[in-house]
Amino acid sequence: MPFDPSQIPIVQIVFFVMTACAIGGAIGVVSSPNLFHSALYLVLSLFGVAGYYVLLSAGFLAVVQLMVYVGAIAILILFAIMFARRLMGQGENQNNQQWWLSLPIVMILFAVLVGVVNTVSWPVSGAEPTGDTVMELGHAFLGSYLIPFEVVSILLSVALIGGIFLAREKVEAEEA
Amino acid sequence: MMPIPLSWWLTVSAALFSIGVYGALSRKNAIGILMGIELVLNAVNINLVAFWRYIAPTDISGQVFAIIVITVAAAEAAVGLAIIIALYRRRQTAVVDDLDLLKN
User: Fold this and answer.
1) ipTM exceeding the 0.90 mark
2) Which domain holds residue A58?
3) Inter-chain CB proximity A140 and B57 less than 8 Å
4) pTM for this prediction
5) pLDDT tens across B26-63, in order?
6) I want to staple B75 with a disulfide (CB 3.0 to 4.6 A). Which of A88, A150, A159, B17 is the partner?
7) Residue A114 lies inside a defined structural domain of this protein
8) Per residue, what are the HEC states of A94-150?
9) Co-location of A80 and A138 in the same domain
């Protein structure tokens, strides 16, 4: 998708709106005193990141982000929080004793990362993505990336079966 | 010329990464830590896709890596939440400070 110069302000405005969603949501995730609100802020942040993928002309990834992250992972976290009400920890302090130490460390980390990002001269190429990226992705997954694809499939199956096993075992133990 | 320079994406990604690390370090609750880790994985994905788009747009590898990271994140969330729920059933808490069985 080539960028039209007349669209430049609009693309940047969209970028800033998405940044507000992603970063604002992320700050809400780590600062909200209610864990349930935290999970809802996580959904907002993931939506912002899906918007980034659209701006980066990776439409398929944006759909995957919405389906897997917003549709599955965030909902799973919400269910887990609702499942056990005491997990929400309403009204109590959600930070541990080391939060005041981790805050400056993380700020230093961010400063270092921004410094590196803005000093390195990235070899940006002006090329555009060629052809249909979805078709290319399919060819890559069943061609040069076949083995990683199969390994990750097995990993996902094992993780899901393991998750069911871990969460189910105790139910039987309690009912017995 | 792209309307958004590459360094903007990397800066946003660094911010998301730092916020996620802060969440993982400062939260008392295991689910809060898990959400921080999800933010970190998202930051990594933004980096991968931005590098794909700006540096090697004709090679699809960047998107392949991003999809594999999303899959691993899904597996991690499923197992992590199952462990948290199993722990909650047994110990009635998800506060990691209280889960110190191995300490004694």
Assistant:
1) yes
2) 1-91
3) no
4) 0.88
5) 988 888 999 999 999 999 999 999 999 999 888 888 89
6) A159
7) no
8) CECCCHHHHHHHHHHHHHHHHHHHHHCCCCCCCCCCCCCHHHHHHHHHCCCCHHHHH
9) no
